[in-house]
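Lab intake sheet, docking and co-folding queue.

SAMPLE TYPE: protein with bound small molecule
LIGAND NAME: zinc ion
LIGAND FORMAT: SMILES
REQUESTED OUTPUT: full 3D complex as structure tokens
PRIORITY: normal
SUBMITTED BY: R.K., bench team

The fields below were copied directly from the construct record.
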Amino acid sequence: MMLFGHLGLTGFAAQRLLSDVTIGWQEFAKLAFCAMLPDLIDKPLYVLGLAPVNSSRIWGHTLLWSLTFCLFCWRFWSSLWPWALATPAHLILDRMWSHPRTLFWPVLGNRFDGILPMDLSHFQFLKFLKWRWEQSPFSLVFDTIAEVAGVVLLTLLLKKIGIIQKKEKGTDK
Ligand SMILES: [Zn+2]
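RESULT FIELD (auto-filled):
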């Protein structure tokens, strides 16, 4: 899953679960940081050629990292609590259970699941989509629906926070 699915769906869940907390732009920034943290760690490593396998889901997408980060925030970085829970939520939205060696690293051995059949650093996006359709049409359709829903939910959240301003009708006469 990509940016909008993570931010929109996690933002929606946070609004529902933390109904007593007012989400302003600062809270949204913390939520966005935690929701994207696995990708913020792993994608640069992949692009820089530092990933041990051909995948942009490595250490940042492990349960070990996610739980350690949550525990650390809960105990020592209270301003990021409970927003840190968006980090394990990222693993759920990425459906990491289909990559068990990565999710449970190092319990199943010191190896990660290689996911990508090609080097995406050359922007072979259409080839990548074709490959994903051949692998699992369901997962491609799920991700596409989640991205579209994410755009809608994120827009609603940003409007509520006031980051996106509603246009006032009839004020420019
Ligand atoms: Zn991810």
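REVIEWER NOTE: The radius of gyration is 18 Å.
SIGN-OFF: pending second check by T.M.
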